[in-house]
Recover the amino acids of this structure.
């Protein structure tokens, strides 16, 4: 199966595949104790960085841009945005 493509619709030439891990300031961490696997983070992530595996949701940090929308939308406050290379 082909590797999933993560795209961002910017630029005059159309779609680009962007590795955001090199410039992101914050990254999301899911607390599995709080998570109810509702899938809101999956639905709201603008760059398709949340994926489902074995009925649970995970975040692909290679393409996550750290916008925090998933944390804002999570109904259980199960996602913390953590400073890259530091503390919350
Ligand atoms: S939105 Fe929150 S509770 Fe729902 S799947 Fe994502 S992390 Fe879990
Ligand atoms: S922080 Fe933004 S880009 Fe990263 S998983 Fe959450 S919604 Fe998607």
């Amino acid at each position: 199966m082909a590797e999933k493509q993560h795209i961002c619709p910017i630029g005059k030439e159309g779609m680009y595949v962007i590795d955001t891990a090199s410039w992101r300031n914050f990254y999301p961490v899911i607390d599995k104790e709080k998570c109810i696997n509702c899938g809101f983070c999956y639905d709201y992530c603008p760059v398709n960085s949340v994926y489902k595996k074995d009925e649970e949701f995970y975040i692909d940090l290679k393409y996550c841009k750290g916008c925090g929308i998933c944390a804002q939308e999570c109904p259980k406050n199960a996602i913390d945005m953590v400073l890259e290379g530091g503390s919350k």
Notes: The pocket of iron/sulfur cluster (ligand 1) is lined by residues 30, 35-41, 57, 74, 76, 78-79 (CB under 6 Å). The mean pLDDT is 84. The first helix runs from residue 40 to 44. The first strand starts at residue 7 and ends at 8.
